């Protein structure tokens, strides 16, 4: 097995890409979506106004001593590049390219004094995914084959979108709408949240499920009232209603919602112990780790096994190919998420556009992954990469 010769971390000089919140004005993804900052009226209209796009995309490249290069993209930008170049690279460079477990363990243990979750796990995830891509290329196998192989032929998708009604026509099995109003917007906001879900239900068929995403914007009493007002509208789950660390609140909310309405969370959780808390405290029916943030594929495998043993679904958050290669290998991940990145949510475009080439998208709501080695994508040479911390302290 070749050894890893170089690890490199880049930022990207282009809008969009892995930091999909970094979009031009007028994009639905930045149009008055409820957030924890919605308590402040001046930050309600735009998530970019409080800095949701401040990190930017991150590209990690791992080069083996035979010249093979694996790479991955996630968010994290310049601060994640600093952590990777100045701290994590020492555990990667010189190691055999197949030593994913040991490298992950060393990165995690060595950063415990300032890491554990958030940006550091985001950086670790980027490195881990680049190493999976490299290993796949060295073994000439797609990552899903390294994970044990597919359990079904193709995967089906639900869409996260401002227009679930349009997503139904594109073949998706359901549509998740980000709600616009949080508790600070009072009764009027609550009514508007309910009305938009009701109008979507009127426009889609009975078999098409709806869900709503609350992006950490609510509290237990509000989310409970919302759930009961939505009862009967075919809302399959209420997502991330509360701040990610409010395990107690999630457990209470899950007990309080109408029968059949599920709770989901986890896109801002990290590590197997974080997900163990969600599972053992009965916080959610569906876990949604983001493979680019939760610790990478090496950790997602463990999170998923734990969830499976608890009888819970794992439907990874966004993350395009990095999620798809996983979802196709697990029965407790029966479908995948697709983020509708067209500005008006009216067509299917690659999720991480323009950063990747060959990025697969669902057609008619379905996707069969090609057997290209690694994650099967290439970096778009038209996106300019910058390497701000090359070998700074080594
Ligand atoms: Mg979400």
TrEMBL record:
Keywords: Lyase, Magnesium, Metal-binding. The gene is rhmD. Its EC number is 4.2.1.90. Reaction proceeds via a syn dehydration. It comes from Streptomyces abyssalis. Residues 154-260 form the Mandelate racemase/muconate lactonizing enzyme C-terminal domain. It is an enzyme of class 4 (lyase). One of its GO terms (molecular function) is L-rhamnonate dehydratase activity. Catalyzes the dehydration of L-rhamnonate to 2-keto-3-deoxy-L-rhamnonate (KDR). Belongs to the mandelate racemase/muconate lactonizing enzyme family. RhamD subfamily. Belongs to the mandelate racemase/muconate lactonizing enzyme family. GalD subfamily. The record marks 337 as: Transition state stabilizer. This is L-rhamnonate dehydratase. It comes from the Bacteria.
